UniProtKB/TrEMBL annotation:
Keywords: Receptor. This is Toll/interleukin-1 receptor domain-containing protein. InterPro entries: TIR_dom (IPR000157). It comes from Actinoplanes oblitus. It holds the Pfam family TIR_2. Residues 3-109 form the TIR domain.
Length: 125
């Protein structure tokens, strides 16, 4: 089951770290910078068995109406990169904050959010 990783281009360093961490744990990841159709791409991924991880930060250019178009589904995980809470439309979903965590703590939150490693013998970075 692949993981769709949606992120603002300014959050690419976070996205790359998450991608490497998930791949090291045996997950297949498809990275997609958020564009004008990001809600549609997320909806399409959530219509199947895929897990979707959205990186949410102040740098994300989505408006409140854009966030409202993101379907809330069990496979949706929002990871906050800044202090505060997610956009109102995402507050009812599975969201976790990576803000102010060290790398080990952030990795633990990430693995819990995606249901752990796919390969029990893999080593996460």
């Amino acid at each position: 089951m692949p993981i769709l990783l949606s992120y603002a281009t300014s959050d690419a360093p976070w996205a790359q770290w998450i991608n490497r961490s998930l791949q090291a744990a045996g997950h297949v990841v498809e990275m997609q910078p958020a564009g004008v159709d990001f809600a549609d791409r997320i909806g399409a991924a959530l219509s199947g068995p895929d897990l979707v991880v959205i990186l949410v930060s102040r740098e994300h250019r989505a408006s409140d109406s854009d966030w409202a178009e993101v379907p809330l589904a069990p496979g949706l995980v929002a990871l906050l990169l800044d202090s505060g809470s997610p956009p109102a439309a995402l507050r009812a979903t599975n969201w976790k904050s990576l803000y102010d965590l060290d790398e080990e703590e952030a990795l633990e939150v990430l693995m819990v959010a995606v249901g752990g490693p796919r390969n029990p013998f893999s080593r996460t970075p």
